[in-house]
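thread: overnight batch results

M.L. [08:02]
morning all. the overnight job finished for the chain we discussed friday. pasting input first so we're all looking at the same thing
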Amino acid sequence: MNGIRSSMQEYLFLLNSFLLNRAHLNYVVSKMVTLFSNFSFGRNFLITILFFTVASSNSLIAEDNASNLPAIKKVKEGIYDFGGIIIDRKSNSVSIPAISNQVNGLVEYGVVHEDGKIHESLFRTSVRPQIFHTSLLLLKFKPVEGFFQNLWSDDPKSIDYSENCFEILVSWEINGTNYEKEIEKLSINQNRNGPIEKKSFIFTGSKMIEGTFLAESSGSILAIYADESAVMNNSDYDSSNDDVWIANKQEMPPLELPVLIRFHLPQ
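M.L. [08:03]
and the structure it wrote out:
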């Protein structure tokens, strides 16, 4: 039974990836067939549940983009490599490699793609924004709705986003010593001379306009100053102000140092 349960869990994860990216059909079907081929009920069960899920779950299909997403590779039980992102289903987290990009001066982003606005970001990464966005959907987390409508309104309301806020940890190593810091500590609000409030970043999701996934074009992954094209945004006070956020040189890793950024989904 443990083997069946494990195969079922991997099947559902792979099936969800198919729904999020229909270009993966051949890969996912072959994996599902392999998973269930050793069980006598496998063929009929596979046909039944595939028909039911595809027929009833169109709402789970992520936005298409002109470019296909890469195949998901299983690293070990519960851990997958998706285009350079490590998805850990056990810890409910995703991790991306990045480079320390800016250690002082004004910033508008925490993380951008290396082809994005690197002159305004703490970190840059080779990971594609759409893959990061899709990774969060694969972990069954939905974007927060109404964030920008409220933020840009004439009378924005104070909204508690605590249930939607991620724990984001940046780790690096220097001369055998390991460091790990919350990403909020790495940027300072000059108006109040303090860092971003702990656990302020939420998954807002990027937009699809005329077949183009905006984050893929802009390279915006995690925004400190509100950006509707970014995958994640800062919900802290003053996120609508573009000239108050600076890199915290006292807390940032040295310039050009490789780091690992782990995004833990809200519990």
